[in-house]
Amino acid sequence: MRVTILGSGSEGNALLLESRTTSVLVDAGLSHRKLVQRFAAIGRGAPKDVSAVIVTHSHTDHAAHASTYARRLGCPVRASEATLQSIRLRTSVEAEPFTVGRRFMVGDIAIHSHALPHDAPQVALRFETKVTTVGLATDLGHVPKGLTRFLGECETLLLESNHDPDMLEAGPYPEMLKRRVGGSLGHLSNGQAGDLLAGMAHAPKRVVLMHLSETNNSPRLARNSAEAALGHQGTELLLAQQHQPLELDPARDQQLQLGI
Known about the structure:
The chain has helices at residues 32-41, 60-63, 66-73, 81-86, 147-150, 165-170, 175-182, 190-198, 219-230, 250-258; strands spanning 2-7, 14-18, 23-26, 52-54, 77-80, 95-98, 104-106, 109-116, 122-128, 133-137, 156-160, 206-210, 236-239, 246-247. The protein has 260 residues and is α/β, with parallel strands linked by helices. It has one domain (2-258): 4-Layer Sandwich (Metallo-beta-lactamase, Chain A), CATH 3.60.15. A 7-stranded mixed β-sheet has the order 6-5-4-3-2-1-14. Strands 7-8-9-10-11-12-13 form a 7-stranded mixed β-sheet, with helices on one face.
């Protein structure tokens, strides 16, 4: 499965997953103009044949442009019932709810969901094809029961590593926002992400650290924490950025699947 992360962070989130026959956009926090620019930055045109726009939760950095994406691409918006009730979609846009915890299909991609603790109804997602599995878990204040197992079979894991607690505490955010970010319904710290990785029975072949705060974290701290948790298991570790796209190398995917 080809994964292209267009942007990851508090200013907007979107990524594209492509199997052999199906493409889905996950989250719609970037304007369509920015979406086109990010694809151009990696030498690609914006996708035209997309089967669904999947929204993980209703916060604007994930959902603001869902109607625009769906209208331009001629596809439905898929989200949990709770999320669909919270976002404003244009009446011309088809909305298709999914039940959290129950598998659904988009083309040849099987999609599973798991509820996450956040201050809006939120889900982790697992995307499965016949050849690979990709997991996505961002915007969660702590690791809930069952999440490590839910993500355990993923070859590629996109995992939030939002903040360093010391930087958050000493940083410029108002106290109320600090409590929100660092609370049990906020965002995952580097240490919490590391604990999740360390607790997995089988390390993913690739981990991408997501949703890094530009104010309360640093790439070095996030990477060091994840590397310490993973040890020397041969996992490829990457960091997604807010303003630069990241395309996971399909050739590298084939090598991972073949065990080369």
